[in-house]
Amino acid sequence: MKVAVIGIGEMGFPMAGFLKKAGHDVAVFDIDSSRMATAAEHGFEIAANLKELAGKAEIFIAVVNTDQQSIDVTEVISANAAKGSIIVISATNNPLTMRDLGKLCATRGIGFIDSPVVYGASGAKKGTLLCLVGGETDVIEKARPVLMAYSRDVMHVGPIGSGQLAKACNNLLHWVHCVSNYETLLLAKRWGIDAQRMREVLLKCPAYNGTLDRWDTTKFTWQEKDMDVTMDLAQLAGLMLPMAGLTDQLVKTLKAKNVSELLYGAECDYMGVHVMPLTAEEGGLA
Q: In CATH, what class is 2-159?
């Protein structure tokens, strides 16, 4: 199929590579000229702008950063692509944004699905992402062979916006685990037990979680954006989610550097407090 990828950064570029490897004709666009140059060197068809790109494909995959970028891409592509084309939003956005964009595309004869992915940059590089998809079954099935080029599976969650809701639920658990994992290993470290060793132990216990397993690769890049979506959805639905609210605040204090120091350093910091292991003389276990 003729496929276009909008946004060829850390996620979009390897996704485009797997699409090409699967035999699809792939055109790309990015506002970053250096990324475009790299894509040209790797044999991808280049478009000068979104309007030009709209004439080069039948399925358009947006791998952008913000809701506004998804809006901008959808407005231009839906206004210029052939009827029956499909726009796929692989960015992490608000479900309500997807609902509005789906309505816009419907008025223009363009298919629309939201298909955010999980397993991050490592999944993109390996071609093992998981697509969480919202939309009409027939549109999703038409796009499925394309999505499977870079994915382990394509899971249809429900109507348009449901993919983003599933991603928000995944993200909430991920950031809750980030906080709970940190505090758990901090307790071990304070009492003189190596935090990395405790992590290895917990990975074999019922307390296992995927975040703990991939702890070294968590970059703490999007936690504020992710939690903003969660808290907005809770507010609009009239839900009280106290753990989510607390996580929203606590996860803002964590960076990848904190996790590295916790696991592999002699000392670490949490919420402005410098933590050192208790010595045997102080009552520690080590």
A: alpha beta
pLDDT digits (tens, 9 = 90+) for 104-146: 999 999 999 999 999 999 999 999 999 999 999 999 999 999 9
DSSP states of 175-243: HHHHHHHHHHHHHHHHTT--HHHHHHHHTTSTT--HHHHTGGG---SSHHHHHHHHHHHHHHHT---HH
Q: What secondary structure letter does DSSP report for 277?
A: P
Where does residue 43 fall: left (phi above 0), alpha (psi -120 to 50 degrees), or beta otherwise?
Answer: left
Q: pTM for this structure? A: 0.94
CATH H superfamily, domain 165-275: N-(1-d-carboxylethyl)-l-norvaline Dehydrogenase; domain 2 (1.10.1040.10)
Residues in the chain: 286
